[in-house]
Fold:
Amino acid sequence: MKALRWYAKKDLRYKDIPEPIAGPGQIKARINLAGICGSDLREFTNGPRIIDINKVPLTIGHEFAGTVVDIGSGVSDIKIGDRVTGLCYWVCGECYYCKKAKYNLCINKGLIGANADGCMAEYLVAPRYLFQILPDSVSDEIGSLVEPLSVGMRAVCQGKVGLGDTVVIVGDGPIGICTMLAAKVAGASKVYLMSKHKNRGAVALTMGATNVINVKNEDPIGTISHLTGGLGVDVSIDCVGSPDSPQLSLDVVRKGGTIVMVGASYNASPIFFRNLMAGEKTIIGSNTYINESSMAIALLADKRMDLSLLITSKIPIQDAVEKGFNRLLDNKEDNLKILLQIPQ
Structure:
């Protein structure tokens, strides 16, 4: 089969590799669409960050929609022909965190596309629990976005966003906009989005942001202070993870408010902790998701969310580097989510 393989930074190759076989407890899916994630971009430009160098060359990718073509022994709750999407990780089931059902914190957690072959290929084989069935009302295009939406929903749950809350989302990428939608569904009365890109900000407004603050042209802290009568918001969610975004996320939250960290910088982030202490604010992390993907699919199935505007284009996987990765890196203004079409 053909697969997009990571060899080194700036070195992705569309290569023939052996077709995988489903073992006990596993599913084999024919991949129809695969999304390029921000983490894929980071591995392309600066990897290996999370890629296991001992597994290189490695098929990358963890956002997908596909069709079940084979079922391993011991699996009875899914059938050949079912349309599926999936989670990005597998777990050991035996460690302290797994036994407490905190699977996203598993000590032995592995990521498809980083610790094992991912979904930018004709076929993906992975444990049954990684796959979720897509209802007929959710297209492959939208189904391939379940994973980033699940990340956003987890962040909203971690921040305990509820009815009437005010929220700031820091970041205008797919995760940021998905988190904005999740906050609205959770009952937030106002959701402000911090953006660096005019066109992405316009998409966020169209999709329901209360206001978009362009951090290049406006004073984000002053603007939020003005919009909230000097109070600040109840919850801020950092979906960027740059060295300076945690402080911004802290500064826009009211006293007693909550800051949720979704983006993860590989560099140190200076934080003025007196602001945290004096305001009795809370910082909490948000790592992938647990059960949020089921909620995401349910919301998409009954059309309470529409992610279609996030999809900038669909391109053949053989053009992934030039028309996918490089385009996302060179023109963030006009590109959000690019989906790779796998030849059938």
Notes: DSSP finds eleven helices and 18 strands in the chain. Residues 146-158 form the longest helix (13 residues). The two ends are 11 Å apart (CA to CA). The chain has a mean pLDDT of 96.
